Amino acid sequence: MNPSFFRFAAAATLVLLSLPFAPPLAAQPADHSEAVEKAMAPMSWWVGRWEGPGWTMGPDRQRTEVEVVEIVESRIDGQVLVFEGIGTDAATGKVGHHALGVLSFDGDEQTYRLRTFRSGGVLDPDVEVKPDGTLIWGFDQGSGRIRFTVRHTEDDRWVETGEYSPDGQQWFPMLGMELSRVGTAGSN
Question: N or C, fewer C-beta in 10 Å, the chain?
Answer without folding.
Answer: N
